[in-house]
Write a structure and sequence with these properties.
This protein has 15 helices and 8 strands. The chain is an alpha+beta fold and 437 residues long. The longest helix is centred in the middle third of the chain and has 24 residues.
């Protein structure tokens, strides 16, 4: 009798945990484990940051960690930096990130914090990194979000399932329709003389620019990994038989012609120069294939990087994610492709003032950020996959169209789960609308 009385509640609990409601309850638990830090009135700076501002930054981090009763992360994490500068001559985002990542680790003398490290002990704990920076803002701000990486992978698994249940054929058709712009641009270029004669030079140039914008949006909208593919790269969702394991997905990403495939990270003396040469060679090859679409770039782009280290990489030389972008990728990619740090740089404000003075006026007298910040990317994010025994490592980078206010991949996970949650609520309110799953 005792066994029968206990078994029913246990069965009910298992059923709950296996249900959509149980999945969302676990997601809410994971959300409470995130750390959010926001620091106003300290200008984001590079290593040239004054000692006073460094101390003020670390003190603010320590104070906010104390307020929420959180300590130093000891395991792997995902980290997001959301920066806003107000200086007339701010440094580039990747140099700011380098400074802040160091300040979030080792505590300086005189900071009121009981441990040697602040947010984490070492940069190597960061398995996913996202950095976004907006220049020319009215007030400076440093936003920091940290999550246990194990929780991020669970969020990724849930988001992938949410995408699967919400995917419609209309989404596939929309992608196909966007891809047609590439064919339209090809024909426009191929028949340039004929089109110029029919349309006139001015109309042809304007139409070509519009088509190029749409073609770039289509091409670079396909270059990044989406939530399902990112999940497959980590072997998620678990128990789902796709016929393609995570190693094969990594090979597909590592072979995609829409991405820059720059080989393995250097792990021995002298390897850095060889790797930089490989980056430049891959950039040249990519431009050889796609320059007819992407030159000149008329859309803002973000940089998305997927890294898998060689399994023989010694722990002492494992590259920090930020170093990969800062030291190897951005120095080659930004000047070669003419990428810009803000979508406002892609707007011809002189043309806008001539065509629509009222709209141009709404942007204000100085619509673009400080001139020195133009060269860059709107944001960058890097994901480190686990090494695979007897398999080579790789670095795969993508220029991703970034004009639709789309968040990074972690933010996309949250959006997918929120949309799925809202749909479940709608199903409960209107059961006759419920679709079988």
């Amino acid at each position: 009798m005792l066994g029968s009385k206990v078994s029913k509640p246990l069965t009910d609990f298992k059923s709950f945990m296996a249900s959509d409601a149980g999945a969302l309850a676990r997601y809410e638990q994971r959300r409470r484990r995130r750390i959010h830090i926001s620091i106003d009135d300290i200008e984001p700076q590079s290593k040239k940051m004054s000692p006073e501002d460094r101390a003020a930054f670390q003190s603010a981090v320590a104070e906010q960690l104390s307020e929420i009763k959180r300590g130093t992360f000891r395991g792997h994490i995902a980290l997001k930096l959301d920066l806003a500068t107000s200086s007339k001559s701010p440094p580039h985002a990747h140099t700011i990130a380098k400074n802040l990542l160091d300040l979030l680790a080792k505590k300086m003398d005189g900071i009121d914090w009981p441990k040697k490290s602040l947010l984490y002990a070492d940069d190597s704990q960061i398995q996913a990194l996202s950095v976004m920076c907006r220049h020319g803002e009215g007030r400076p701000n440093i936003g920091i979000e940290a999550r246990p990486f194990a929780a991020v992978l669970e969020d990724l698994e849930l988001a992938a399932k949410a995408v699967q249940t919400g995917e419609t054929m209309e989404a596939y058709y929309e992608r196909d329709r966007e891809g047609e712009w590439i064919d339209t641009l090809r024909e426009l270029i191929r028949k340039e003389a004929q089109q110029r004669k029919a349309l006139g030079d001015n109309l042809y140039e304007a139409y070509c620019k519009m088509v190029r914008w749409s073609a770039q949006r289509a091409l670079l909208g396909q270059s990044g990994v989406d939530i399902p593919v990112l999940g497959w790269l980590y072997g998620l969702p678990r128990g789902l038989l796709t016929g393609v394991d995570k190693g094969m997905w990594a090979s597909l990403i590592g072979g995609s012609k829409l991405r820059l495939q720059v080989g393995e990270l250097p792990i021995s003396t002298g390897g850095s120069s060889v790797f930089r040469r490989k980056v430049n060679e891959e950039i040249a090859a990519f431009k050889g294939s796609w320059d007819w679409i992407i030159n000149p770039l008329v859309v803002a782009v973000a940089l998305e990087v997927v890294v898998r280290p060689n399994p023989r990489t010694p722990p002492a030389v494992l590259h920090d994610l930020d170093n990969i972008v800062r030291d190897y990728l951005i120095p080659g990619i930004v000047p070669a492709f003419g990428t810009v740090s803000d979508h406002r740089w892609t707007i011809d404000f002189e043309e806008l003032r001539a065509r629509d003075p009222k709209l141009a006026q709404s942007w204000g007298p100085n619509p673009t950020p400080p001139a020195g910040t133009k060269n860059g990317v709107t944001r960058y994010e890097v994901w480190r996959l686990p090494a695979v025994e007897n398999e080579p490592g790789f670095v795969s980078a993508a220029l991703v169209a970034d004009m639709d206010a789309k968040p990074d991949l972690v933010g996309q996970m949250d959006e997918c789960i929120r949309d799925w949650q809202e749909k479940l609520r709608g199903d409960r309110r209107y059961p006759w609308r419920r679709r079988s799953r």
